[in-house]
Amino acid sequence: MTTIAIFSQNTYPKNLNDSLVIITADQLKQANLIFLEHSYLLEENRMLNEELNVKDEMLYNFEELDSINSEKILKLTEEVDFNRNKVVKLENKYKTTCLIGGGALIAAIVAFLLK
User: Fold this and answer.
1) What are the CA-CA distances from residue 46 to residues 3, 4, 24, 51 (Å)?
2) How far is CA 38 from CA 8, 27, 45, in A?
3) Integer Rg of the chain from CA
4) Concatenated DSSP letters for 53-111?
5) How far is 61 from 68, CA to CA, in rounded Å?
6) How is the chain split into domains, by residue range?
7) Local confidence pLDDT in tens for the 115 residues of the chain
């Protein structure tokens, strides 16, 4: 970082070649403050750009993670639906088996009683 400053001499007004240079102490202080503020703002801008780059990278990583999790959720949802269908089929099979078994049992009892 380069330091920039303006210095004043007490011999004013001063003639330089064909120009007359007049600067007061207050103007000198203001000019130095402007240069100092400019340097500060340049450094702050650089730091904010670095922070922005880090946050952009974090956002990219979160988007990648989110897409991976979305795929996992989709696969798990499909698996849950598949398993629900299996459960429904097994429940229907159980009901059918119970009806057939119950009917056969009643038929056997009736046949036993009628003999």
Assistant:
1) 17, 19, 33, 9
2) 20, 16, 10
3) 44
4) HHHHHHHHHHHHHHHHHHHHHHHHHHHHHHHHHHHHHHHHHHHHHHHHHHHHHHHHHHH
5) 11
6) 14-81
7) 556 555 555 555 666 677 766 777 788 889 899 999 999 999 999 999 999 999 999 999 999 999 999 999 999 999 999 999 999 999 988 888 888 888 888 888 888 888 7
Q: Which helix (H) or strand (E) holds 2?
A: none
Residue carrying structure tokens 């202080």 = 29
Q: Which residues pair with 41 in a beta bridge?
A: none
Q: Provide the whole-model pTM.
A: 0.49
